[in-house]
Each structure stands twice: as structure tokens, then as C-alpha cells.
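thought: fold this chain, then report.
action: predict
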Amino acid sequence: MVLRGYVPTSEETLQTLAALRLQSLNSDFSTHAPFPRLEELFPPHVLHARLPPPPHRPPTKCRGARLRAGLLAGGLWGQALAKQRAERDQRLRGRLREEGASTMAAIVEKWKLLQGMGRPEAMAAYMALVREWPGFGSTLFDVDLHVSPVGCGPQRLWLGIGAKAVSLYKPGEPEPLDSFCYGRISSFGASDSSTFRLSVEDRDLLFETSQVEEIAQLLNTYLASAGTQRLPRPQEPPSSPPTSEPTVLPQGLCTAAGPWQLRPPVGSSHS
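observation:
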């Protein structure tokens, strides 16, 4: 989860985590110790984020302009553009190697400071750092939230499902945008094979995701462990005739902390 970017923290902490992992794998620093690749120690996306963004190319709207652009692309102008792209890509690869070498050097310096630390201590220190994130213990899913204003596109978020609350995070941000304890959730389920609906009091949240069933199953598991009845999915009728008394969910479940789930989002690998 750390390597995939699902534990938002500072780059300094990420380097310390990498050093602790090296200490756990290889014990004290040695030039003869086997070195894992950097992407096995440090999130690659952090290095890529340092690179300049690609140049913006405005869309060509006019059909005649598109035709002229196509003709140019097939001639000398196209060859010049291809050469420029190749040179730019080569510069970016060189910059990425430099950033990787700098980061590895910083990790090794931190590794040297851990001399004498045993494997159990290194693992305990690693977990203590990860636990500093308030969302520790949640299972995170990549989702696209469909927002209500007309013309607004879906918003990419993390949907964090914990033992006592469901939270929404902006990817990479440590604090949630919003958090809902299970007492506030009135229903949930699949609107279709790629859309998950979560009804919170008077709000309906629609998430586009490829993991609809996994999200629903995890929510059912936490509700069952809390001793509640399974909430009916929006497209399902209640399993028993309605009564005058609504289902009452337990209150006081708004704390985000919960038992640590040693797994990344369903279907992804972890390290």
C-alpha cells in the first residue's frame, strides 16, 4: 500500500520507511548487501511528480485545420515534431534517473543510521510510522464520484471503508474530505455493474468503480461485525415485510480508528 501511494505522508517519512525496510531485509548497511530496485522501496509516482508536465496541445476544431495538420505531420514538419518528442522523452528519462539516484542516496544515509536495529524493531518502527495516518486500518478503493452540478465531470477520490466509518479522501491527502459513521448510512448497493450508490441521510452519492461487489461485501462485513442487520441494496426489496419501526443502527460509531486491515484495495498487490 505504501508503494502504491495509498499511505499519504511526507517524502521524508517515505524515505525513512524505505530505510527501515532495508534494515528489516538486510540488517545493517553493507556495500555487499543485495539492493532491491528503488520501486520496491519507494513509491514511483513521487519521482514522476517531480518531472515537468507535458506541453499542452490545444485541440484542433476545424476540419480543414485538422486536414492541414495531418498533411504537415506526414512531411518534414512531422519528422521535426517526432525528433523533438524523442529528445524531450530522453531528457525526462535522464531527469528521472537523477531523481532516483538522489532518492536512493538519501535512503541509504538513513539506513546507515539504523545500525544495530533488529528485524522486529525495524518492523515495529515501520508500522508505528504508518499508523500515524488517521485513515490507518481502512481499505481504500479508487472511485469516481459523480457530482451534481451540470457540466461537472466525475471527481477521482479514494473511498475508505473502515470498521466504524466510511470516508472520502482526495488521493494523496491525509485528512478525509468527509466521513460517515454507519449510523448515518441509510442504504447502499449497486445501481449497475460499475456504479455504487451510497445513501447518507438525505444525500445520494454515486461512485463509478470496477469494484462494486467488493465494496458492498466489505460494508456488509463491517455491519455484521457491528451486530446490525444488512442494509437493503437500492435495487432489492426488503427481505421481510415492512414494519412501523425502522431499522435502528448503533450510534457512536463515528471514530475513524479501527482494526488494521493488512490488505490493499481488493484486486491490487501490496508490499
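thought: worth noting. Residues 78 and 84 are 10 Å apart (CA to CA).
final: C-alpha cells above.
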